[in-house]
């Protein structure tokens, strides 16, 4: 269903009316985690002022340590809905458990499946039935074929509104959080018809890498980027070192605007 063999034209996926697909270079930005109404609104306003058209923000956070901030759950979803009402920006947010899909879908404009759940088949199937577009991150240990097969699980349930997101893979390299597999973008676009975006924040894991990795994403023809931003990264409850602040984000948005996307 997601293969290019049966679907020669590359697809455009619309999220609350915002297109992601060939020629779009959609900018998605927002906080890694929803912490407070003020922090979320400030991050969304920064994102919007810079030119982002979709807002990200995690209410359910899949954390390595059970002692780390796990997200606000439904209270976080309500904050996202309030910020959407204030800014008009459609919301992308992660769902980590099949049992929560209906709840998250009742607030979100797009469901995000994270790298740790990239082969959680029950979750993928539930997301495929939720009636909302799905952003499917690549498993950190997953091959491109496994990623496309994960998308197939969503598609099989009748939902072809799927966007693939390359977010870096595990390699021996420790200087970056993950190794951005930039070649996965054109390969996934050649094999499948789905839009492919890049997450330079979670791949590099460091603020100074977000702009260069975004340039790389644009150069290989990614259909968008998803970026962590925070009004005060030093106080962030999740992934502060990779969050951009206002000025960085405006510079990044300028690059996104000025580098013409490959179609
Ligand atoms: C995220 O985008 O908030 C996230 C946790 O990403 P990943 O699943 O790529 O680690």
Task: Walk me through what this model shows.
This protein has 263 residues and is of the alpha/beta class. The chain contains 9 helices and 10 strands. The strands form 2 sheets. The chain has an 8-stranded parallel sheet. The two termini are 22 Å apart. The mean pLDDT is 96. It binds phosphoenolpyruvate (PEP). Phosphoenolpyruvate binds next to loops.
Secondary-structure map:
Elements: E1 13-15, E2 18-20, E3 26-30, H1 37-50, E4 54-56, H2 74-87, E5 91-94, H3 101-107, E6 110-113, H4 121-128, E7 134-137, H5 144-156, E8 162-166, H6 184-191, E9 196-198, H7 200-204, H8 207-219, E10 224-228, H9 246-258
Parallel strand pairs: 3-4, 3-10, 4-5, 5-6, 6-7, 7-8, 8-9
Antiparallel strand pairs: 1-2
The structure holds phosphoenolpyruvate.
Overview features:
EC 2.5.1.54, 9 helices, alpha/beta, two-stranded antiparallel ribbon, transferase, 3-deoxy-7-phosphoheptulonate synthase, 263 residues
Give a summary of the structure in a few sentences.
The chain is α/β, with parallel strands linked by helices. Helix content is 36%, strand content 15%.
* Beta-strand fraction estimate: 5-15%
Number of helices: 9
Shape: globular
Rg calc: 16 Å
Which bin fits the share of residues in helices? 25-40%
How would you sum up the major sheet?
8 strands, parallel
Alpha-beta classification: alpha/beta
Strand order of the largest sheet: 9-8-7-6-5-4-3-10
Element-level helix/strand string = EEEHEHEHEHEHEHEHHEH
The overall average pLDDT, rounded, is 96
Task: State the separation between the terminal residues, measured CA to CA.
Answer: 22 Å
Tally of extended strands?
Answer: 10
Bound heterogens, unique: phosphoenolpyruvate
Low-confidence stretches: none
């Amino acid at each position: 269903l997601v293969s290019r063999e049966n679907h020669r034209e590359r697809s455009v996926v619309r999220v609350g009316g915002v297109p992601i697909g060939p020629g779009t270079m959609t900018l998605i930005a927002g906080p890694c985690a929803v912490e407070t109404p003020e922090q979320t609104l400030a991050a969304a306003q920064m994102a919007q002022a810079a030119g982002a058209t979709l807002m990200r923000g995690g209410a359910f956070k899949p954390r390595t340590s059970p002692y780390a901030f796990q997200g606000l759950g439904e209270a976080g979803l309500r904050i996202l809905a309030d910020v959407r009402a204030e800014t008009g920006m459609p919301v992308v947010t992660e769902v980590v458990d099949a049992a929560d899909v209906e709840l998250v879908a009742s607030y979100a404009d797009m469901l995000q499946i994270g790298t740790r759940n990239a082969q959680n088949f029950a979750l993928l199937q539930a997301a495929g039935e939720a009636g909302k577009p799905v952003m499917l991150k690549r498993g950190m240990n997953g091959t491109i074929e496994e990623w496309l097969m994960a998308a197939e699980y969503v598609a099989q349930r009748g939902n072809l509104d799927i966007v693939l997101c390359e977010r870096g893979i595990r390699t021996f390299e420790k200087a970056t959080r993950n190794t951005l597999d930039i070649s996965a973008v054109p390969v996934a676009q050649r094999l499948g018809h789905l839009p492919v975006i890049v997450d330079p924040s979670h791949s590099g894991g460091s603020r100074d890498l977000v702009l260069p990795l975004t340039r790389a994403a644009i150069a290989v023809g990614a259909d968008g980027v998803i970026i962590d931003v925070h009004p005060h990264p030093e106080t962030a409850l999740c992934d502060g070192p990779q969050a951009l602040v206002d000025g960085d984000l405006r510079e990044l948005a300028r690059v996104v605007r000025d580098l013409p996307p490959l179609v």
